[in-house]
Amino acid sequence: MSSSRPRLPDVSVTQLEYLVAVHQSNTWADAANLLGVSQSALSQGLAELQRRLGIEIFGWDGRRRVPLETAQHVIEHAQRILAQTGDLAAWAERVRAGSAGKVRVGMIDAAAVDHFGETLREFRENRPELDLHVTVGPSSHLLQGLSTGDLDLAICVQPDDPGVANVPLLKEKLFVYGPPGVHRSQPALWGPWVTFPQGSLTRNLIEKTLRSLGAPFEVVAESNQPEVLSEMVLIGMGWTVLPRIQAERPPASLTAIHTTPLLERTLVAAARQTGPANPAAIELTEEFQRHARLISRSPRN
Predict the structure, then answer these.
(1) Residues 107, 25: one domain?
(2) What beta strand segments (E) does 51-198 contain?
(3) Tens-digit pLDDT profile for residues 213-254
(4) Is the pLDDT assigned to residue 1 strictly greater than 50?
């Protein structure tokens, strides 16, 4: 079956640039000066553009070459192409430099405070011209920011979303914590629970694991802040499941029910699958990976 798609004319960006310059200038001489080329080169380039398109763009008004009606359609197209090419050139420059522009990063609290705070500080100090904006929030909120284009990168719990590309950074162990003085080793006796709100990826992992062990999952309080959950456990409100680095930090300083973790969650650097990646986000991801390898070698992990 033959294709009905028309054959694309072999026109160059330079020829389109010549056309737009003539459109924006009072005379062809002014356009040539603007472009830094001779009038002969300008004339030859536009003649070649007409030949390759197979239509007349310019006519004569006495001794002056003037655009025909057909020129306006070509000019509008040329302006769009030049704008997009400029965007591509700017993006390529950022790829080469990786040190300017803006990068918007979302991080869950554990990533921002406990694991990668130093990485962020060093990255910012080494790139003073880079506008680094950080948002701290739950994984679901950060992933939404990725999908809407509000974030370039999210350091979050690994999502099950084919539209998100993610680079694993580290595995974080989560332990079970009960109120002070309460020692129930059997999962069926654990609870009630203070945990993350509905929609939290970590809460989903916790609930699935607890139910698989036969533990009831009655939730009596919710918070996105681990410090709040720890304090609720400390006053006897309920039980929780948290990373050790958060649950055992003063002033709460909870004690895990078991020395073995209940489960592991994977923290990843997530980005959109489509569109050109922000070069600064790529470089920052590499820094996170480097630091994550150091964390993984720590005795506490």
Answers:
(1) no
(2) 58-61, 64-67, 101-107, 130-136, 153-157, 164-177, 193-195
(3) 999 999 999 999 999 999 999 999 999 999 999 999 888 789
(4) no
What whole-number distance in Å separates Cα of residue 298 and Cα of residue 301? 5
| 257 and 183 within one domain | yes
DSSP, res 27: S
Long-range contacts, stretch 290-296, CB < 8 angstroms, 24+ apart? 291/115, 291/116, 291/118, 291/119, 292/115, 292/169, 292/170, 292/267, 295/115, 295/170, 296/170, 296/171
The answer to whether residues 178 and 254 belong to one domain is yes
Range of the domain at 274: 101-170+266-296
- The pair of structure tokens assigned to 82 is 């030049």
CB distance 260 to 151 below 8 Å: no
Please name which of 265, 267, 273 lies closest in space to residue 146, comparing C-alpha atoms: 273
Mapped onto helix, strand or coil, the DSSP state of residue 231 is helix
Distance (Å, whole) CA 141 – CA 294: 28
138 & 181 share domain:
no
Q: Give dist(CA 255, CA 234) in Å, integer.
A: 10
Residue 17 falls inside a structural domain = yes
CATH number, residue 50: 1.10.10.10
pTM for this predicted structure = 0.66
Weakest mean pLDDT among 75-79, 176-180, 197-201, 205-209: 75-79
How confident is the model over 110-128, as pLDDT tens digits? 999 999 999 999 999 988 8
What DSSP element (H or E) covers 206?
Answer: helix 201-212
* CA distance from start to end of the chain: 61
